[in-house]
Amino acid sequence: MADKLLDYNDALERLGGDEEFLNELLEELLGQVDENLSQIEQALKSQDYENLKSLAHSLKGASANLNVTRMATHFMELEKRGSEHNIAGADDLLQRVKTDRDELAAFLQRN
């Protein structure tokens, strides 16, 4: 599992050094995570595997594209749980996503 939440320098390089644009994209990601966390929680409670898989897949891609690698890894694991119809350990993964979300929000406040 990835230790570092975000590879900011690599993401910045991929965007041609446009720090303002990167921060805007990270804010958008944060908003997407906030919008979808309750839906993921509901999918887990109701064992709606397809919805869990779909939501996690979308957020995995969004976070991976911005080099928010630890969060992407957690969403990848949630997506896998949905695919396998096995939610064992999913609550722990969801808590890790929430921790990642809070860490990303704190990072953006500092920048």
From TrEMBL:
Biological processes annotated in GO: phosphorelay signal transduction system; protein complex oligomerization
Q: Name one GO molecular function term.
A: protein kinase activity
At what positions is Phosphohistidine found? 57
Question: What SMART domains is this protein classified in?
Answer: HPT
The entry's keywords:
Phosphoprotein
Q: Which residues form the HPt domain?
A: 18-111
Q: Which PROSITE patterns match?
A: HPT
Name of the protein described by the UniProt record = Hpt domain-containing protein
Q: What phylogenetic lineage does the species belong to? A: Bacteria, Pseudomonadati, Calditrichota, Calditrichia, Calditrichales
